Amino acid sequence: MTVRSLLICLLLCLSPSLYAAPVFTIWVDELGNGSYSIDGAPPTALPFGLAVDPLSGLTTLEYILPIPVTSGDVTLVKVGGEGDSDRLRFEGGTALFFFSVIDDGDPPALADTVPALSFPLQANNFLTTETGPEGLDGLFGYTPASTGPGGGPLIVYNFISDAPEPSSLALASLGLILTLLFRRRA
């Protein structure tokens, strides 16, 4: 092997692009609709169910993440500071517990747990205001540091707080289609 071939081989082996960590994108909502994607591949459903959070003792929605992450809490505050809306608790390992405040105006969701998020936070916590229009708000594009709540390799989370009910979404879609059809005829 020539020196030139050895240098080319060495440069290719040490190229950072060859060792780029995968990007995990994770979507979860309060109804049990969770999925993840690796490097933009088609999404894969996340396993979920009702489980007891070992720290609070409350039964709520639990997702099983595809990779272990850092323990901690992410608390979403309603727009305008009207109180907490949701808490996402990462229990180290792969458990993600989704707590949602019971709201009499919304249909029940699997994550609806308590009238107020009054149980203690973990020491590692992040508080933020939810974003997005009412009915489809949450926290989008949350990318924690490796030591932050839910941190690990490069992960982008999208937490949907108020997921629209399927029937409401179907009615809204039907209304939009009918509006477009009547516009074409006019």
What is the secondary structure topology, with strand pairs?
Layout: H1 3-14, E1 24-29, E2 35-38, E3 44-45, E4 48-52, E5 59-64, E6 72-77, E7 84-90, E8 95-101, E9 112-114, E10 125-129, E11 138-142, E12 155-160, H2 166-185
Parallel strand pairs: 1-12, 6-10, 8-9
Antiparallel strand pairs: 1-2, 2-3, 4-5, 5-8, 6-7, 7-8, 11-12
The pLDDT mean sits at: 79
Total strands: 12
**Strand fraction:** 25-35%
Q: What spatial form do the alpha-carbon principal axes imply?
A: globular
Detail the poorly predicted runs.
9-13, 165-186
Write down the Rg.
Answer: 21 Å
Query: Distance N terminus to C terminus?
Result: 76 Å
Strand-and-helix sequence, N→C? Answer: HEEEEEEEEEEEEH
Number of domains: 1
Structural class by helix and strand composition: alpha+beta
Largest sheet: 7 strands, mixed
Helical segment count: 2
Instruction: Classify the helix fraction into a percent range.
Output: 10-25%
Question: Which structural traits does this protein have?
Answer:
globular, alpha+beta, 17% helix, 2 helices, 186 residues, 7-stranded mixed sheet, 5-stranded mixed sheet, single chain
What does this structure look like?
It contains two helices and twelve strands, in the order H-E-E-E-E-E-E-E-E-E-E-E-E-H. It has 186 residues and is of the alpha+beta class. The protein has one domain. The chain is globular. The termini are far apart. The C terminus is likely disordered.
